[in-house]
Design a protein that fits this description.
Layout (H helix, E strand, L loop, with lengths): L8 H26 L6 E5 L5 H10 L4 E6 L2 H14 L4 E5 L11 E7 L8 H11 E13 L5 E2 L3 H16 L10 H8 L2 E8 L2 E2 L7 H15 L5 H16 L4 E3 L2 E8 L3
Helix pairs in contact: 1-2, 1-3, 1-7, 5-7, 5-8, 7-8
Length: about 270
Amino acid sequence: MSQYALAGGGKGKERLNLLSEVMFPSTSQLLRGVGLAPGMRCLDLGCGGGHVTRYMAGIVGDAGMVVGIDRDGEILELARRDVDASGLGNVELRCADVLAIEEEGVYDLVYARFLLAHLSDPAKCVGAMLKACKPGGLIVIEDIECAASFCYPRSPAYERYVELYQQVLRRLGGNADIGPEIPGMLRRAGATGVQVNVVQPAHLEGPGKYMAPVTMRGVSGAVVAQGLASQEEVERIAAELELAAADPETMISLPRIFQVWGRKPS
């Protein structure tokens, strides 16, 4: 696994809380659409703050189970507090490398959101997802094409933010534009009935507009450490992005998001 570019811990959890709020409409529609149902046993790889884990647990109910795996122990501890507060008894959170999973034929649905873009060997992860699925089970992936991000009217700060995000993921072994590659990756791993849907949230108001400055700050440590920009530059970019987010005439998007799913052969 490559080095994760975004800050973790408490600050990382705050960013993930915002991301979950922004992504909830499209992710929940995807999971309902592919067939998430009561009684299922599910795996959420790279679960982060556990937001999707908890959503799935609410759908599968007491007859089902959701396991969330992430390697950031501090974020997982915060996620456990959220699980406890929600009263869900059908969630298990594990601190582990997602590529280290060895379970085979256990889950009805295996899911990952915004994980593959950070991996040096995403195909290996897709293979592990397929292996962990029961025969006939679902593999569901959401990931990004950062190059398709936009801000209107045009913002040099936004364009520099997108460029830096692409560069730092590439420098650390990931790929911020992996989205279009995922359907072929899933087919090559052996999945059948592979389908794709593309969504791109864009906002004139509300929390979605602030994903750009929050993400810029979240990735700033890695950007500076890799020598891609100075701390002064990343702070200036983040400040300009916040001004753009506060402007009601400015529209800001998230990256283009590829929603891909298929089944393990029966």
